[in-house]
């Protein structure tokens, strides 16, 4: 037994009105197709922006964790080789200062995305809050090193 073949009835367009109706149907479907494609493209663009934001935020978070480990090192209390430690501390402070623009940039990007009601606004807000918490912790540890 062979598969059932469905025969579709073919409408033969005879009158100008039939042709115009068919044209309107095709144009209507095409317009809907373009609108759906634009929505998908916009959603993909939002996803791309979110992934860039997340990548940058994860890199900064990783960098902060690395620097928190350095700042938590208790060897700075040892009075030997004080000049080298002062230079190391100054270099560390300069590196942290250089990265301060990264958190500002992420803040601006995340705030723009939230203002545009990005689909991941809650995740973006949480990530920014966590980055600010870690950044403040790093700055407080850095201040402790200066004392």
From TrEMBL:
<keyword id="KW-0597">Phosphoprotein</keyword>
<keyword id="KW-0963">Cytoplasm</keyword>
<dbReference type="GO" id="GO:0003779">
    <property type="term" value="F:actin binding"/>
</dbReference>
<dbReference type="GO" id="GO:0016328">
    <property type="term" value="C:lateral plasma membrane"/>
</dbReference>
<dbReference type="GO" id="GO:0007026">
    <property type="term" value="P:negative regulation of microtubule depolymerization"/>
</dbReference>
<dbReference type="GO" id="GO:0051693">
    <property type="term" value="P:actin filament capping"/>
</dbReference>
<dbReference type="GO" id="GO:0045169">
    <property type="term" value="C:fusome"/>
</dbReference>
<comment type="similarity">
    <text>Belongs to the spectrin family.</text>
</comment>
<dbReference type="GO" id="GO:0008017">
    <property type="term" value="F:microtubule binding"/>
</dbReference>
<dbReference type="GO" id="GO:0048790">
    <property type="term" value="P:maintenance of presynaptic active zone structure"/>
</dbReference>
<keyword id="KW-0009">Actin-binding</keyword>
<dbReference type="InterPro" id="IPR018159">
    <property type="entry name" value="Spectrin/alpha-actinin"/>
</dbReference>
<dbReference type="GO" id="GO:0005856">
    <property type="term" value="C:cytoskeleton"/>
</dbReference>
<dbReference type="GO" id="GO:0016199">
    <property type="term" value="P:axon midline choice point recognition"/>
</dbReference>
<dbReference type="GO" id="GO:0031594">
    <property type="term" value="C:neuromuscular junction"/>
</dbReference>
<keyword id="KW-0117">Actin capping</keyword>
<keyword id="KW-0206">Cytoskeleton</keyword>
<keyword id="KW-0677">Repeat</keyword>
<dbReference type="GO" id="GO:0045170">
    <property type="term" value="C:spectrosome"/>
</dbReference>
<dbReference type="InterPro" id="IPR002017">
    <property type="entry name" value="Spectrin_repeat"/>
</dbReference>
<dbReference type="Pfam" id="PF00435">
    <property type="entry name" value="Spectrin"/>
</dbReference>
<protein>
    <recommendedName>
        <fullName>Spectrin alpha chain</fullName>
    </recommendedName>
</protein>
<dbReference type="GO" id="GO:0042062">
    <property type="term" value="P:long-term strengthening of neuromuscular junction"/>
</dbReference>
């Amino acid at each position: 037994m062979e598969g059932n073949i469905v025969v579709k009835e073919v409408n033969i367009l005879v009158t100008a009105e039939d042709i115009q109706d068919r044209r309107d149907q095709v144009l209507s479907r095409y317009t809907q197709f373009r609108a759906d494609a634009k929505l998908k493209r916009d959603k993909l663009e939002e996803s791309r922006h979110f992934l860039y934001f997340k990548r940058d935020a994860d890199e900064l978070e990783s960098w902060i964790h690395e620097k928190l480990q350095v700042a938590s090192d208790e060897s700075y209390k040892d009075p030997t080789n004080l000049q080298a430690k002062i230079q190391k501390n100054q270099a560390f402070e300069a590196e942290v200062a250089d990265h301060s623009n990264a958190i500002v940039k992420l803040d601006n990007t995340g705030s723009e995305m939230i203002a545009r009601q990005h689909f991941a606004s809650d995740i973006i807000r949480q990530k920014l809050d966590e980055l600010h918490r870690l950044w403040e912790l790093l700055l407080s540890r850095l201040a402790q090193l200066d004392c």
